[in-house]
Structure formats: C-alpha cells, structure tokens
C-alpha cells in the first residue's frame, strides 16, 4: 500500500474554474472582444498575483488586474475590461469543471484510502460540487472554511480534514493552485503540498509543482 493514505484537494483552480460565459458576456457588453482560449490561463495568472500580493488581508484586486492582463486586452480597453471582470465575479459561480478532474478523482480513489476537499468557500462548496457531479462516492469529506470557521492558510483547517479521515499529516498530500493559501497552509500542517500550476507561472523551487490533477496518480 502507498504511504500516502489521503489526498486533499482545493476546489477552485483544481476542480472548478469561474463561469467563463459570464465573463465573456460582461466583456462583450463593455466592447471587449477576446480569445476564449486565454480564459483558463487568466485564472492562474490571477492566483499568481494574489500569491505575490504582500497585503495582510486577501484582496481580489490583484487577481482581477492580472486576470485582465492575461487576456491581452487592448490598452484602450483595459479599464473597461477590469470593471467588466469585477462585475462578472460579483455575479457568478465557479461552476466550470476542469477537464480531466473527474477522471483524476476516480483514479485517486482507487490508489489511496481517502480523497477529501479542503476549500476556502462561502458555505456552498459541497452543494455546488454535488450539483455538478464532482462529489460522489470518491469524495469522503468536504471541509468548507465558512462552515468550520477556519480558513487556509491556517493549518487548523487541514487538521480538521485529517482528523475526520483518521489520517496522519505525514501520510497526506494537498493539491492547490495557491502558494499563499495551499502550499503555505498545508506545509504548516505537516502535509506535503503539490502546487497545481498548469502554465508554469510559479518559479519557486521550494515546493513541488504539477501541471494537472492527473499527475498526482504518479506521485502517490
């Protein structure tokens, strides 16, 4: 049996992405035409910007600015695009299931004893994941920061998941798309972090990177 007994997964950026149709619609209303193929990369560029933000409190402004920058918007349309993206994110769900995520979860369920979700959310992540068919028999536990009252990078949220699963930290992995929340938090809890960075935007050499969730199967 693998020494890895549990794989913990972030939701946003690992399983789900923001609803691109809402973003495209808001941008079109603002007179911004873009290549939809850039939308996925824009999310990870936004997350990289939040990782680099030195503010004590989490702010979505760096994310939104980097998101628009990654869309290669004409300079004359940047302000309109940023306003449009702000409107879009205030009025949409993260309900686009990342390609290959469901198959990867099923594979992990076959390889390790436990697969769980650990997400900074608003209390709705379990309902949303169930409605999208992401949560089934393969997912054992969902830890939502709003419900637990503790959020990443606080190691306590990982400890809640491990306690629920009955697994020691040294026998768990956590997959997330953020250094600031996922890598730092998992490491503080004694859990091995895997940074999901499909576009190679993070140059940091002090933690492991993977390009896709399917890559975890080769690690466990």
Features:
220 residues, six-stranded parallel sheet, two-stranded antiparallel sheet, 9 helices
Structural notes for this entry:
The chain has 220 residues and is of the alpha/beta class. 41% of the residues lie in helices and 14% in strands. The protein has helices at 20-29, 39-52, 61-70, 78-90, 101-111, 125-131, 145-148, 155-165, 179-188; strands spanning 6-9, 16-17, 96-97, 114-119, 141-144, 172-176, 192-196, 208-210. Strands 5-4-1-6-7-8 form a 6-stranded parallel beta sheet, with helices on both faces. Strand 6 (172-176), helix 9 (179-188) and strand 7 form a beta-alpha-beta unit. Helix 1 (20-29) crosses helix 4, helix 2 (39-52) packs antiparallel against helix 3 and helix 3 crosses helix 4 (78-90). The longest helix has 14 residues, at 39-52. The chain is globular. The mean pLDDT is 94.
Q: Taking Cα atoms only, what radius of gyration do you get, to the nearest Å?
A: 17 Å
C-alpha termini separation: 10 Å
Strand order of the largest sheet: 5-4-1-6-7-8
**Structural class from helices and strands?**
alpha/beta
Q: Could you give a short account of the major beta sheet?
A: 6 strands, parallel
Detail the poorly predicted runs.
Answer: none
Multimeric status of the protein? single chain
Report the count of strand segments.
8
Order of helices and strands: EEHHHHEHEHEHHEHEE
